[in-house]
Amino acid sequence: MIEPQRVTEHRGSDDLLTAGLGLDGLRAMVPPAFADATNPTADELRRRAIWSSWRGIADLSPTGGFGSLYGSVASVPGREYSALATVPGAKQPHRVLVQVPDAFDLARRCVVVAPASGSRGVYGAIAVAAPWALPRGCAVAYTDKGAGSDYVDLDAGTGVRLDGTTGQLGKDTDLAFAPEVPEGAKGVAFKHAHSQDNPEADWGRHVKQAAEFALSALGEAFPQAAPFTFDNTRIIAAGISNGGGAVLRAAELEGEWLDAVVAGEPNVYVEGHGSRPLYDFSTEAALLMPCALLQLPAASLPQPPLRAQVEPLWQGRCATLRAAGLVEGDDVAAQARSAYAQMRAKGWTDEALQAGALSVGFDLWRSVVVTYASAYGRYGIGAHPCGYAFSAQNPDFTPRAATADERNVWWADAAGIPPGNGVGIVDTKLAPPDFTLPGLQCLRDLYTGQGADADKVRAGIAETRAAMPRAGLPVLVVHGTDDGLVPPAFTSAPYVAAARAAGRDQVRYWQVRNGEHFDAFLAFPAYGARYAPMLPFVYAALDRVDAYLDGKAALPADAVIEARGRGAGAVEAGQLALPR
Question: Each residue of 159-169: b (16+ CB within 10 Å) or e?
Answer without folding.
Answer: bbbbbbbbbeb
